[in-house]
Design brief:
The chain has strands at 34-38, 42-46, 87-91, 96-100, 106-110, 114-118. With 124 residues, the chain is mainly beta. The strands form three sheets. Strands 1-2 form a two-stranded antiparallel sheet.
Length: 124
């Protein structure tokens, strides 16, 4: 199944709340992401896990791949790995990324697009 694309201009917008009804919170902590090598050697910056997860809920992972340019045939992937039921949200600000799950679902994400994938456990 290809990635589902949505036109952000047609999505419903949340109403602006009156300032007096808004409960503003202070930033609790600024976290500097650590660099890690993943898969076949591509670099990601991952701020969590690694901090107190009560500060990060509901996220499990947040990976930033940064600006990377690969020549044809140089792109690095990952070996097979089950996501076992969690959600992946991938967005591309500029460029393109081919993202697929183990059942072949996914597609090309490019230039401002977002892909939300619900991974499932495949029973064999």
């Amino acid at each position: 199944m290809p990635a589902v694309m949505a036109d952000p201009l047609t999505l419903p917008r949340l109403p602006l709340l009156p300032q007096e009804d808004t409960d503003w919170r202070r930033v609790a902590k600024v976290v500097t992401a650590q660099r890690h090598l993943e898969g076949e050697g591509f670099q990601v910056r991952r701020p969590f896990p690694g901090i107190d997860l009560s500060l990060a809920d509901p996220f499990l992972l947040l990976d930033h791949m940064g600006a990377v340019e690969y020549a044809p045939g140089e792109a690095k992937g990952t070996p097979w790995h089950p996501h076992r039921g969690f959600e992946t949200v991938t967005y591309i600000i500029d460029g393109a990324f081919q993202h697929q799950d183990t059942t072949g679902g996914g597609g090309l994400i490019a230039d401002g697009a977002t892909q939300w994938m619900t991974a499932a456990v495949r029973i064999r």
